[in-house]
Design goal:
- The protein has helices at about 10-15, 55-70, 80-95, 100-110, 115-135, 175-190, 205-215, 230-240, 250-265, 285-300, 315-330, 350-365, 400, 415-425, 440-450, 480-490; strands at about 25, 30, 35-40, 45-55, 145, 155-165, 165-170, 195-200, 225, 245-250, 270, 275-280, 310-315, 370-375, 390, 410-415, 430, 430-435, 455, 470-475, 475, 490-499.
- The chain has two domains: about 10-275 and about 475-495, Aldehyde Dehydrogenase, Chain A, domain 1 (3-Layer(aba) Sandwich), CATH 3.40.605.10; about 275-465, 3-Layer(aba) Sandwich (Aldehyde Dehydrogenase, Chain A, domain 2).
- By secondary structure, it is α/β, with parallel strands linked by helices.
- The strands form six sheets. The protein has a seven-stranded mixed beta sheet, with helices on both faces.
- Helix content is about 40%, strand content about 20%.
- Helix 2 (about 55-70) runs parallel beside helix 8 (about 230-240).
- The chain is globular, with a radius of gyration of 24 Å.
- The chain contains 16 helices and 22 strands.
- The structure holds nicotinamide-adenine-dinucleotide.
- Nicotinamide-adenine-dinucleotide binds near residues 198, 238 and 471.
């Protein structure tokens, strides 16, 4: 356990969390119509940190109407693409200038390590913003040499235009609140859309700060709005007929509700959902590299990562080595608050989520499974779960099938590559996977057959703004990142000219 080395939160962040928060609509803070408030907690202590409005359907309608008015007035889409790009690049500069405060705010509210907030939540996000800003000036259609035969003598030239889809709702989970909000915000803005972001009720603070920084960067009022709230707010947003597109990240059950609501209005939608992601270690696996890789891939952000590895299949010839090595490494991890840069394991996001993860662990204990690490409570006041490794887990065990979204790894041996492929694919999810080997033929064989939107080889979890990200099967519909992100926020218009 460690906590004496915790960094002191800046005066600016302390002042920010003490604010009387409202909704961010039309370029400023507005008092909510709803009188309900949501308490926001510090997961490292369990103490209340702030409160935000729990927006109702009237608030959602207000936000969408403002975003619609901004879209229809073309105050954003009507800018030259180079001007949109410049403003988004300025936004990235402001994120950079405020990086430490944003990282501290995220760690305070979400619980994750300050190292992860600095490097990933904020650091990687700034790179993502700069990458996506560049797309504003690179959105193109095609020219088409068409063969329409009538009337005789007339020739046609056709081309396509990519136009902004319209008003977007970005619905965001609590695991990477700033980063995932930006995954929706910036490609939507690069394409010329306006947006309403709904952060998770557990972690609304950085989205509210992002909106201020975007305004400061030059994003006009009404283009980027934030409504804070829970399920009722999310449902009202998903069902709003004024939307053109919903970009949702969250759990598979909620994603199904969002898709169902969207279809009623023919609102376009994309869903980034859950995962139960396998790692497959072949007989030639570099054991040390693989252990280090799955420690990151499995325990980054306490396993609260949609693409986190949770099922590890190891060739029997290396099984004991990997299982013992993992157990030793995990048992040696230090536990403490995210603000302590030396603490390797930090609290989960909420008491409710901690209890959910503990229930999964209790079920595995009741099933008589063999624990190599974890399984006992953490004697600290926040929402901690001890990192857990469970060995020899049967394929039909609940812990092998359900998304835990916490620091729990199952490790099992295999003998035959066909068997392991079948086991890896036998899941309703298909978000991500990794293969650990330098046997090119065996690796490529698995890469082609694994049902997953991303397959890493000899690593697990790194993302890049240019690399498409999304799920097969019940892990989602659509892709984010790269040109796919822009594609998702545009409509294609055919123009056909007779001459
Ligand atoms: P969640 O589905 O409970 O909530 C996600 C968001 O949806 C929240 O903002 C929530 O308030 C809102 N919401 C709730 N009910 C709604 C409704 N009826 N209509 C519209 N919105 C509604 O998910 P969570 O617990 O916040 O996040 C964890 C889940 O997210 C995990 O399953 C994880 O795998 C998934 N996730 C996926 C990705 C990905 O890119 N594939 C990334 C991060 C998290």
């Amino acid at each position: 356990m460690s906590s004496e080395k915790a960094i002191v939160v800046s005066d600016a962040v302390q002042a920010f969390v003490r604010r009387d928060f409202g909704l961010f609509i039309n370029g400023g803070t507005q008092r909510a119509h709803s009188t309900r408030r949501l308490d926001v907690f510090n997961p490292a202590t369990g103490e209340r940190l702030a409160s935000v409005p729990d927006a109702d359907a009237t608030d959602v309608d207000n936000a969408v109407r403002n975003a619609r008015a901004a879209f229809d007035a073309c105050i954003w889409s009507g800018l030259r693409p180079a001007d949109r790009e410049r403003i988004l690049l300025h936004f990235a500069d402001l994120l950079e200038a405020n990086a430490e405060d944003l990282a501290q705010l995220e760690t305070l509210n979400q619980g994750k390590s300050i190292n992860v907030s600095r490097a990933v939540e904020v650091g990687a996000t700034i790179e993502y913003v700069r990458y996506m800003a560049g797309w504003a000036t690179k959105i193109t259609g095609e020219t088409l040499d068409v063969s329409i035969p009538f009337p005789p003598g007339v020739r046609y030239t056709a081309f396509t235009r990519k136009e902004p889809v319209g008003v977007v709702a970005g619905i965001v989970p609590w695991n990477f609140p700033l980063m995932i909000a930006v995954w929706k915000l910036v490609p939507a803005l690069a394409a010329g859309c306006t947006i309403v972001i709904k952060p998770s009720p557990e972690t609304p603070l950085t989205a509210l700060r992002l909106a201020e920084l975007a305004l400061e960067a030059g994003v006009p009022p009404g283009v980027f709005n934030v409504v804070t709230g829970g399920r009722e707010c999310g449902a009202a947003l998903a069902a709003h007929p004024g939307l053109s597109k919903i970009s949702f990240t969250g759990s598979t059950p909620t994603g199904k509700l969002v898709g169902t609501a969207a279809v009623q209005n023919m609102t376009r939608f994309s869903l980034e959902l859950g995962g139960k992601n396998p790692a497959v270690m072949l007989a030639d696996v570099d054991v040390e590299q693989a252990i280090q890789g799955v420690l990151v891939g499995g325990f980054l952000n306490q396993g609260q990562v949609c693409a986190a590895v949770s099922r590890i299949y190891v060739h029997r010839s290396k099984y004991q080595q990997v299982a013992n090595g993992l157990a030793d490494a995990v048992n040696a991890m230090t536990i403490g608050p995210g603000l302590d840069p030396t603490a390797q394991v930090n609290p989960l996001v909420s008491a409710q989520h901690r209890d959910r993860v503990q229930q999964h662990i209790a079920r595995a204990q009741a099933d008589g499974l063999r624990f190599l690490a974890g399984g006992t409570p953490v004697d600290l006041p926040g929402f901690y779960v001890r990192p857990t490794v469970i060995a020899d887990v049967p394929h039909d065990a609940a812990i092998m099938r359900d998304e835990v979204f916490g620091p729990v790894l199952a490790v099992v041996p295999f003998d035959d590559t066909d068997d392991v492929l079948r086991l890896a694919n036998d899941s309703p999810y298909g978000l991500a996977a990794s293969v650990w080997s330098n046997d090119l033929r065996a690796v490529m064989n698995l890469v082609q057959q694994i049902d997953a939107g991303t397959v890493w080889v000899n690593s697990h979890v790194p993302l890049d703004p240019g690399m498409p990200f999304g799920g097969y099967k019940q892990s989602g519909i659509g892709r984010e990142f790269g040109k796919y992100a822009i594609e998702g926020f545009t409509e294609t218009k055919s123009v056909c000219i007779a001459h």
